[in-house]
Amino acid sequence: MAEKESSIIKSGFNKKVFFILPLFAFILASTFLLSSFSFVTVEESNLGSSKIGYGSNVCTSVLRADGTYENLGCSKNLAYDIGLDNARDCLGSTACPGPFNTIELCNSTSGDLETSNCGAPQADNNEGFDAYIDDGCGLSSLNGTYDAQANSAGNWTVFAVFTSLCDDQRTNATRISNATGSLLAGNTFTSTTLQTDDQLTVNWTIFIQSG
Questions:
Q1: How many domains does the chain have?
Q2: Does residue 20 sit in the same domain as residue 97?
Q3: What is the pTM of this model?
Q4: Pair 112, 147 in one domain
Q5: Cβ count within 10 A of residue 92
Q6: How confident is the model over 25-68, as pLDDT tens digits?
Q7: Residue 21 belongs to domain spanning
């Protein structure tokens, strides 16, 4: 009798197990399919999306009064937050503050050029930048020459040649802005000291691209 009852209990237990296992497998599979479906939906919602990217570098060189040429190299610059907003307004509204063709130099002749006078660009444009003024030394801001690069879509250059009219004029940073001083970007380059009749060329190459 006991053996019969044990057999009945085992039979009932097996039936429950056979019922629960398929149910558990079904729930697990459903969860996996739903999560997979959600993942695919998110990915598909991004198809076709794109963004406009900003890129630029600044190349600088010095032509000394005695004819000696010095290549100071090229380096990337930082687009300021206000510069990005200005670009937004130019692309999306009629409130464009451009064109951004004005190039200015930072005066690091005195002081700590790395931290006070002419620091590395910051997104909020609050780095030290003691711009050269029109003091007779020839290094105040210039309206640069714009040149569209016809063979490279979305690419252009703005360059200016500064001629020092004084001795011992040091600089290591530049900014580009519009005629009223609204900023686009900033850059630091190899520090150089200019003497009378030395010429510093600052060449901004800027491009926008879809990515």
A1: 2
A2: no
A3: 0.73
A4: yes
A5: 9
A6: 444 444 333 333 333 333 444 545 556 677 789 999 999 999 99
A7: 1-49
